[in-house]
Amino acid sequence: MKFDIFTLFPEVFQPYIDASIIKRARQNGLVEICLHNIRDWAFDRHHTTDDTPYGGGGGMVMKPDPVFSCVEDVLGSDFSIPLILMTPQGRPFTQQVAKELSDFPHIALLCGHYEGVDERIREHLVTDEISIGDYVLTGGELPALVILDAVSRYIPGVLGDPTGAEDDSHASGLLEYPHYTRPPIFRGWSVPDVLLSGNHAEINKWRHEQSIQRTAKKRPDILEKYKKEHIE
User: Fold this and answer.
1) Omega of the bond leading into 183 within 30 degrees of 0 (cis)
2) Between 118 and which of 64, 81, 181, 207 could a Cys-Cys bridge form, CB atoms 3.0 to 4.6 Å apart?
3) 229: which residues sit within 8 A by CB, 6+ positions away?
């Protein structure tokens, strides 16, 4: 799967994509990540990518001309590629959205910055808008990394366990069950006997029950939604 990321700060991404699961996915040719510095398409002497807003007010706004030029030079006329703007005004990012995006062989992420982007970018260039939460960040780089990571986990071969993404919290509609590893007893705290039993049917049953209990305690709103979808 290919990710084109349009940003004013490509250096933010490199440490993360050069580590852990994303690094291995890139090395194995499962994920291709291309970073594009929007400043390279600002052709004035100062490579200006922002300006003051018409009508007054604080902050700066990303100019349309370098953004359009950058995106159009990279993506060309392939309108089948989703171009997603990172913005707190976008639709909420969820596990289901991550899975939905993983079905595309190629997606593009546009990182907003400052007070946001010129509205003409939103109206005539991007195809989708996503928010990772009801709060404001300095720029869209962190949200883009979140989406890159979450979507990549659904790409076959990226995770060591082929069903790993399906077991993650929220993937099934519930929070994930507790995990334990060696030693079996640590400071007097024992691993539940069922996990040492070798009885996979009982282990699966225990894990499902634990997921329900954990969701009820931590996120009862999610449990209510799960009950409506699976019981009613």
Assistant:
1) yes
2) 64
3) 173
The class level of CATH for 172-230 reads mainly alpha
Residue 216 burial (C-beta neighbours within 10 Å; 0-12, 13-18, 19+) = middle
pLDDT tens digits for range 50-85: 999 999 998 999 999 999 999 999 999 898 999 999
pLDDT tens-place string over residues 74-123: 999 898 999 999 999 999 999 999 999 999 999 999 999 988 999 999 99
Active site residues: 88, 115, 153, 168
Q: Residues marked as binding?
A: 112, 132-137
Domain with CATH 3.40.1280.10 in the chain: 2-152
**Under CATH, which number does the domain 2-152 receive?**
3.40.1280.10
What single letter denotes the amino acid at residue 31?
Answer: V
Query: Residues at the annotated binding site for S-adenosyl-L-methionine?
Result: 112, 132-137
Tell me the whole-structure pTM to 2 decimals: 0.88
Q: Distance between CA atoms of 1 and 102, rounded to whole angstroms?
A: 8
